[in-house]
Amino acid sequence: ENDPKRVVVIGNGMVGQRFMENLLKHDADKSKCIISTFCEEPRAAYNRVKLTSYFETLDPSSLSMTSEFDEEGRTPWYEENNVELLLNDKAVAMDTEAKTVTGASGKTIPYDVAVFATGSFPFVPPIPGRNRPGVFVYRTIEDLEAMLKYAKENNVKSAAVIGGGLLGLEAAKAVADMNATSHIIEFAPILMCRQIDQGGHNALVTKIEDMGLKVHCGARTESFVGTDGTTDDESDAPVAALRFSNEDWDDLPVQMVVVSCGIKPRDELARDAGIALGERGGVVVDEQLRTSASSVYAIGEIALYNNFIYGLIAPGYDMAKVCSQTVAAEELGINLDLDQEPAFTGADLSTKLKLLGC
Fold this sequence. Notes:
Distance between the termini: 52 Å
Oligomer: single chain
Strand order of the largest sheet: 3-2-1-7-19
Shape: elongated
Largest sheet: 5 strands, parallel
Radius of gyration: 22 Å
Structural class: alpha/beta
C-alpha cells in the first residue's frame, strides 16, 4: 500500500509537462508517485506557442519549459524530480488489462496511472501536390528548421500559408521573418473565424497588411502546381504555384507552402488500446479527465470533452490542473483539502495573437 505508484505520462509537450509539475507539487515529499514520460521528439518539453520567436535566437533552449537543453536534449529538471524521461521514444502500444505502455524502443513500463498527453498533429487536406518538396506543416522545431533550410537553399521569395486561424497567422509571421512575401490563404470569408467577427476581421487584416503580409479569404485551393506545370500527386517537382477553383483567380506563384488547416488528435494509441473515442476522433473524457479505461486519463488536444477538442494552451493547462488534483486525491490518496471536487467544464476560446505584438 505504501509503495509509490507509477504514473506514466504519454507525451512530453506543454500540457504533459504542466501536469507533471502540478502532480509533484501535490506530492511534496516525493513519496507517493514515480513518474515516467514518453517523449517522441529529440528534446524535452518546449513552448510550442512561442515557436515563431525561434527565429530571434535559433536556440531551442530559448523555448524550453524548464531550463537549458544539454547535448542530448535533456534538462536537469527531470533528474532533480526523479522523472524518467524517455527521449526519442514514442509510445506505440498500451495494454489496459496488464497496465503497461511500450515505446518504439521496445521498453515496456508498467503503470498504476496513465495520462495521455499526446496532443495533435497538423491536418493536411487532400489537395493534389501536397507531397511536393517545398510543402511543409508548422508544428515542431524540426518543421521550422526544415522550412528555414528549404527557403535558404531554394531562394524562396514568396510563400503561402494555407489556413487563416490562430496557428496559420503565426506561421505566416514565421514565413515573413524568412524575408519572403507571405500570403495567407483562408477558405472562410474571414480570418480566425472561431474567434472574431467581420469587424474584428477588418481591423485584423488592416494590421496584417501593414506588416507586409497579404491576405486572400474565400480562397478555394485546387492544387499545388509543380515547377514542371503538373497538378497531380504523381510528380515530385517542387511547388511553384497555388491554383484556385475560384472564378477569375490567377495562379499564385510561390516557392514554398505551409499547411496550417487545424489539428487532428493523436489518438491512434488509445484507439488500439480499446479506449472510447469520439466519432471524429479524440479520447472521450469526463469533467475529471477520466477516460473509459480504469486509471487512464487524457489532457490537452487529444481530450474530447463534451464533444469538443480544445486546441489552445490555456484550456490544456486547466485540464492539467484538474487531472493532477484528481490523480493526487483519487489514485495517490493525498488529502488536498479541497472544498469541492476539481472539474474541467469547458473553456474560454479567447486568445492572444502574439505576432501582432498585442
